[in-house]
Design a protein that fits this description.
This protein is an alpha+beta fold. It has a domain of about 100 residues: Nuclear Transport Factor 2, Chain: A. Helix content is about 15%, strand content about 30%.
Length: about 150
Amino acid sequence: MSDTETSRTYDRPTARTVGPPTRRDPRRPGRVISQRRQPWLQPHERFAELLLAVLSGLRPVHSMLGQTIGEAYDQLVHLAPTTPLRARNTTPVIRTCRSFHPRPGVVEAWASIAAGDRVRAMAFRLEQGPDLRWRCAAVEVAARRPRG
């Protein structure tokens, strides 16, 4: 090789450099998940995450405008200012999320929400529209018990 010639080596991109950014899943220590929406999440699991973000004050209520029907948005407007799922010094997470399919195109779901040493309950109903999109039709959060 002469002085004017140079040798070039091309680094091949690795999965770490070309993949989406990752974060640690607080519900499962040591498990890394992508920040992109998980394609394997069921509709009730995805809505549970969205509702938790709104009812804990992490997202504004209007972020659910196109994803609710009927009185569900009014229920969220009424519930959200009180932030019923907000916890001090910790971020609430979904412990479990289960569903029941009373008929095709309808899902009734419930989730238990953990925030520190407290566990709360949330229930909601999803209905599939003619465009095959799932929308929230009802939301309910368990009333807080007085401390004592």
